[in-house]
Specification:
The protein is an alpha/beta fold. Helices cover about 50% and strands about 15% of the residues. A hairpin with a 2-residue loop joins β5 and β6. The chain has two domains: about 80 residues, 434 Repressor (Amino-terminal Domain); about 190 residues, Endonuclease, Chain A. The termini are far apart. About 30% of the residues are buried. The chain has a six-stranded mixed beta sheet with strand order 3-2-1-4-5-6, with helices on both faces. It contains 13 helices and six strands. α3 crosses α4, α8 crosses α9 and α11 packs antiparallel against α13. It holds the Pfam family HTH_3. InterPro entries: Cro/C1-type_HTH (IPR001387), DUF5753 (IPR043917), Lambda_DNA-bd_dom_sf (IPR010982). GO terms for molecular function: DNA binding.
């Protein structure tokens, strides 16, 4: 019964991997123990994989492809979808695009962008949610958010990351003061990476009766196929914009948001000043 419940609660991608492995293993006439020996895992590990009890890694999928599918990437191609299953349903489509994006351009006006969050800050953001989340769910989502940060250091291809945040983001306390100090320190450090640009929109921007960011946050991704998509999210509901005319409108709006922000050097100075204020 427990095994069936585990399978039912698993994602479609996870069940597909389990079924493909079991079917290919049985077709070759191998036991779980024999397959495990061939890839350096125990029979128990293979059993857990086939019953969706535990997660699998990209390394394990590659080894299974080698033994079961003659090196063809039958399982490995499902890996990115499996990774995306860790995120909330409304975020999965965007997460898949972000993993391989040539560039990501973001505007945030409430909290630090997820790609630039520290673990403590990310956890504090999730703990602020309502209705409150269970501790296990917070742990799960925090880890998933931290794993997203691998995009920043990816080397093939190196992604270009542009993030514009409203000044209110670095003034809004999330967690304790130590959490905010560490988050500001991290922002300052990551903004000096050659492929990352961080800019701050000053609080008085609206006094000029011109603030392109007031409609809210957005993320723009450019895929390896050089297509642009815009992701909008509000109140745990999201929409992936794909129609060319709407994408163009939002890309132009983002360009104005960026133009209205402080320069990267001015922004870094403001972030460092904020860090010192949170340190006190």
């Amino acid at each position: 019964m427990a095994t069936e419940e585990q399978r039912e609660s698993a994602s479609g991608t996870r069940r597909a991997i389990a079924d493909l492995v079991r079917s290919a293993r049985e077709e070759k006439g191998w036991s779980q123990e024999e397959l495990g020996q061939r890839i350096g895992y125990t029979a128990a590990a293979i059993s857990k994989l086939e019953t969706c009890k535990d997660g699998v890694t990209m390394k394990m999928l590659a080894l299974l492809d080698r033994e079961l599918f003659d090196g063809r990437q039958v399982l490995s191609k499902l890996g990115p979808h499996l990774e995306a299953d860790r995120y909330p349903p409304h975020f999965k489509d965007y997460a898949l695009l972000e993993q391989t994006a040539l560039s990501v351009a973001a505007y945030e006006n409430m909290v630090v962008d997820g790609l630039l969050q520290t673990e403590e800050y990310a956890r504090a953001v999730l703990e602020c949610g309502y209705p409150p989340l269970e501790v296990d769910e917070i742990d799960h989502l925090t880890q998933a958010r931290m794993d997203r940060k691998s995009t920043l250091s990816r080397r093939t291809p190196v992604p270009l990351i542009e993030v514009v945040m409203d000044e209110s983001v670095i003034q809004r306390q999330v967690g304790d003061r130590r959490c905010m100090y560490q988050q500001m320190q991290h922002l300052a450090e990551v903004s000096e990476a050659p492929n990352v640009t961080v800019q701050i929109t000053p609080l008085d921007r609206g006094s000029r009766r011109s603030h392109a960011g007031l409609p809210g946050p957005m993320h723009i991704v450019v895929t390896p196929q050089h297509r642009q998509f815009v992701h909008l999210e509000v109140q745990h509901h999201s929409r992936l914009i794909t129609t060319p005319d709407r994408v163009t409108e939002l890309v132009q709006r983002y360009a104005m948001i960026r133009a209205q922000a402080l320069s990267p050097d001015q922004s870094l100075e403001l972030i460092r000043k904020s860090a010192e204020e949170w340190k006190q």
